[in-house]
Write a structure and sequence with these properties.
The complex is a heterodimer of chains A (about 280) and B (about 230).
Chain A: H1 16-25, E1 49-50, E2 53-58, E3 61-66, E4 70-72, E5 75-78, E6 84-88, E7 91-98, H2 99-120, H3 126-139, H4 141-145, E8 150-158, E9 163-169, E10 175-178, E11 181-184, H5 188-198, H6 205-222, E12 238-243, E13 246-249, H7 252-272
Antiparallel strand pairs in A: 1-4, 1-7, 2-3, 2-11, 3-12, 4-5, 6-7, 7-8, 8-9, 9-10, 12-13
Helix pairs in contact in A: 2-3, 5-6
Chain B: H1 9-26, E1 30-35, E2 38-44, E3 53-57, E4 60-66, H2 68-88, H3 96-113, E5 120-126, E6 137-141, E7 147-150, E8 153-156, H4 160-170, H5 178-190, E9 201-207, E10 215-217, H6 220-228
Antiparallel strand pairs in B: 1-2, 1-8, 2-9, 3-4, 4-5, 5-6, 6-7, 9-10
Helix pairs in contact in B: 4-5
Classes of the chains: A alpha+beta (about 280), B alpha+beta (about 230).
């Protein structure tokens, strides 16, 4: 690979996606081609899809969580897929939709943020990162029309405003900032109701973590494409917190403890009802 | 009809080399030193925004001396090279050696084929995964594309001989800590007649304990604390 150099007129600047396009047309060594508009239509039952993700703002940041199931039609294709990723030090992204294009989009998004930061010497603002992701979702629209839908949630800690912020998207790349919480994927309807009812302004991190676990638990109870906690395989949702210290994933030991408590709570509620329903 | 002047190739190359060296010597110098936790790079630089030392990739740093616009262009090309390679293959496939070779090719090409050679000297440093620093590498690349694989420490810029002598004298034997490495580098850059404060220095490290992205800039406060200790 030779050194990619450009004249002042065709320099792609800090935009990695533009650099990738230029280097492909210039015949650089081969990254595989991204989804183009000329794909034949594919049925969703043929490719793995990831589903439910939620984000909740708490007093000093954001909690971002996603279940671990991938489905292809009526079959479960993966029990431990991950749909929550760090985007950079102070933000994360959770993705529902076709698993292949989703992970590819996340990879490109992560690199886009890091590339900009290295070339320019300063990170993009949180708003700018949210817009970048919107443009990537928009660029995926032709593929989405063929059945490869990608719908992310973007959440991060705004170091300038010193608070957590959450952004939701639609298939066309429309970007909507949510004040307190967001959900995406097939179980989002159920998850969102749980979050809506349980949300309190300026919750602590622990309460917000319990809330997202409960939301995914209830979603998995009603939506076949959302996976519940799996104590047999030791699989729990991916839960990440993003605050002033940055993005970090909550470890499985803590998630197991919280999940066991959650199950006990649901059970005792039933028993208090005399085991009805 | 006018006859084109004949210039012997030796003379042309020598003139170009002299021109490049003169340009490089006008700027301030830079020292990179290995320490027990990675590689420290200390540059004399009064600007807090126009950087000489920067991050290329997870474990790779770049440093340049000479004309700012020229080495900054090379820096950006290096970031692009590394990010494209990491995207096409995998993050662990990005290494300093292939980047140094790409730089050498590019600089050599400009030196022989273009009117004006680049007035820069650059360093590509990479830290290895081993805790004992066996995988650490430093490639010093000159204006004509010459690559030198440096072992323990390296000086870039003008007055390299004086600075190298001072550095050899001031630097304790390996393994050395970060503070010792930085103090020796600053003493070598400053010389006997000057003292350099944190404000006129740009200091960055490739730090094995810094997670995936090993590159980190030291703040003025950190540098002052090291120098005053």
């Amino acid at each position: 690979m030779s050194l990619p150099r450009f004249g002042p007129h065709d320099d792609p600047g800090p935009d990695f996606a533009a650099l990738l396009r230029l280097s492909r047309s210039g015949g650089h060594a081969g990254a595989p081609d991204a989804a183009s508009g000329s794909l034949p239509s594919v049925s969703p039952s043929e490719i793995p899809h990831g589903t439910t993700c939620v984000a909740v703002r708490y007093d000093s940041g954001v909690v971002l969580a996603g279940d671990r199931r991938a489905t292809a039609g009526h079959l479960i294709s993966n029990h431990r897929i991950e749909k929550v990723f760090p985007a950079d030090r102070h933000s994360g992204v959770a993705i529902a939709g076709a698993a292949g294009p989703s992970t590819e989009m996340v990879r490109l998004f992560q690199l886009q943020l890091e590339h900009y930061e290295k070339v320019e010497g300063t990170p993009i603002s949180l708003e700018g990162k949210a817009n970048q992701l919107g443009q990537m979702v928009r660029a995926n629209l032709p593929a989405a029309m063929q059945g490869l839908v990608v719908v992310p949630i973007f959440a991060g800690f705004d170091t300038a405003a010193s608070r957590g912020r959450i952004f939701e998207y639609d298939v066309t790349g429309g970007r909507y900032e949510e004040r307190d919480h967001a959900a995406t994927g097939s179980g989002s309807l159920h998850a969102d109701i749980v979050v809506k009812l349980g949300f309190r302004p300026s919750m602590a991190r622990a309460a917000a973590t319990d809330l997202v676990l409960d939301a995914l638990f209830v979603a998995s109870d009603a939506d076949s494409a959302t996976g519940g906690p799996d104590p047999v395989r030791d699989v729990f949702p991916v839960v990440a917190v993003i605050d002033a210290d940055g993005y970090r994933r909550i470890d499985d030991a803590e998630l197991r403890r919280r999940t066991e408590r959650l199950v006990r709570r649901h059970r005792s509620r039933r028993e208090a009802d005399g085991g009805a329903s | 009809m006018t006859m084109p002047f004949y210039a012997p190739p030796e003379q042309v190359m020598k003139d170009k080399a002299d021109y490049a060296r003169k340009g490089i010597a006008r700027g301030r110098s830079l020292v990179a030193v290995r320490y027990d936790g990675g590689i420290a790079i200390v540059a004399e630089n009064t600007s807090a925004t126009l950087r000489k030392v920067s991050e290329i990739y997870d474990r790779i740093a770049f440093a340049g001396v000479g004309r700012y616009n020229e080495f900054d262009q090379l820096r950006i090309a290096g970031v692009r090279h590394a990010d494209l390679k990491g995207f096409a293959f995998s993050r662990e496939d990005v290494d300093a050696r292939s980047l140094a070779n790409a730089y050498a090719q590019s600089l050599g090409q400009v030196f022989t084929h273009e009117m004006k050679p680049m007035e820069v000297e650059i360093l590509v440093a990479e830290i290895g995964l081993d805790a004992d620093g066996r995988g650490d590498q430093m490639f010093h690349i000159l204006y004509d594309g010459t690559v030198v694989d440096e072992d323990d420490w390296v000086v870039l810029g003008g007055e390299t001989e004086e600075i190298s002598e001072r550095c050899a004298a001031a630097l304790p034997d390996a393994p050395r800590g970060l503070a010792d490495a930085v103090r020796a580098a600053v003493a070598a850059l400053a010389g006997p007649d000057r003292t350099l404060g944190a404000a006129s220095l740009e200091t960055a490290v490739l730090d094995r304990s810094n997670g995936r992205r090993a590159f980190r800039r030291l703040t003025d406060a950190e540098v002052s604390a090291i120098l005053d200790a």
